[in-house]
Design a protein that fits this description.
elongated, Four Helix Bundle (Hemerythrin (Met), subunit A), 7 helices
Length: 147
């Protein structure tokens, strides 16, 4: 009696595996923002605007060749920028999410380059990295939907 039961159980398991593997559920990818999503994203706009103005302050520190304050400013007032950009990236549409994540990574690579170049007192590299960082940040801001 145990043999037919185990054989039947094996057959049922194979049938279930086959049925599950053959089924396909296609998830709908949203193509537009809902009002709730726009409201959620718009809550980040004042913070992002503040961070953008801090980037201008960083530019002034770089222009004055104030390397100690430049490095401190990157780690201090711009320290929470990464978390904010990651939070915003997660709320964007899937087609914009990957681009936002890539821009966030590029922006922070630029900030690391600024920090390292400021440590080495390399004005040319600092200014080039700063300009690239500002461009990446502005491109990220372009991904934010308007109300």
């Amino acid at each position: 009696m145990t043999r037919p039961r185990s054989f039947l159980a094996l057959m049922m398991a194979c049938l279930m595996a086959f049925l599950v593997s053959c089924s396909s559920v296609e998830a709908k990818v949203p193509t537009t923002y809902t009002d709730a999503q726009i409201q959620q994203i718009q809550r980040y706009v004042p913070t992002l605007t503040e961070f953008r103005s801090r980037m201008d302050t960083l530019g002034n520190l770089i222009q004055n060749r104030n390397w100690v304050d430049t490095r401190t400013y990157i780690h201090g007032p711009l320290g929470d920028l990464r978390n904010t950009l990651k939070s915003v990236s997660g709320t964007l549409l899937p087609k914009s999410q990957q681009q936002a994540v890539d821009l966030t990574k590029s922006l922070f690579a630029d900030l690391v380059n600024i920090d390292n170049a400021a440590k080495a007192n390399d004005y040319a590299k600092v200014t080039a990295s700063y300009q690239t960082a500002v461009n990446h940040f502005d491109n990220f801001l372009q991904l934010i939907p308007k109300s």
